[in-house]
Amino acid sequence: QVTLWLRKLYLGLPVPWYEVNERAVDILYKIKEYNEERDKDVMLLIEDMKDRAAKYEAQAYEWHDILKESLDFSVYSLSDEAVANINDLVEGALELEVESMSLTSFYSAITSMTSELHKTKSKNNKMEQQLKTLRKKLTSAVMLEKKLTEDVEKVQESQKAERARIEFRSKNLKFLVLKIKDLKIKIKEAE
Prior knowledge:
rod-shaped; microtubule; mitosis; cell division; cell cycle
């Protein structure tokens, strides 16, 4: 899963090299989960914004039809400045996602969006801290693995040298045993 996620994340570019071990994979898996959660949240927000935009557009057409039928009022009969102001108001209402064009709706929408912005910033800061912590853990895991690899190599080299010494002593022992047997034979012959 982590490998597929990294390939998808790097969009076909080569994935940077990393030590594949349990700890590194666990850390990368956690980062993958956070990333996917954030992507889901963003997709939900985008879908919600599209739904609201469609709703507001339908409302705008409805109001346009009502104004045109009842008052014979058209956007084309307004001055350029009035049309610009109405467009600004509509864009602001769409951005703020207000239910009506009242001042109270605008204020409560602004307050709500400000609160949401602070929550999102707080969540992002928390995720950033977690990401930094995970990066530090990953770095320390890589360094620890490197040190362990070096230690294993040193132990293997020392074992190799010890084996050579043991083999040499074993040959000497065999030689001495044979020499003792030979000397015992010569002593018996001499006696």
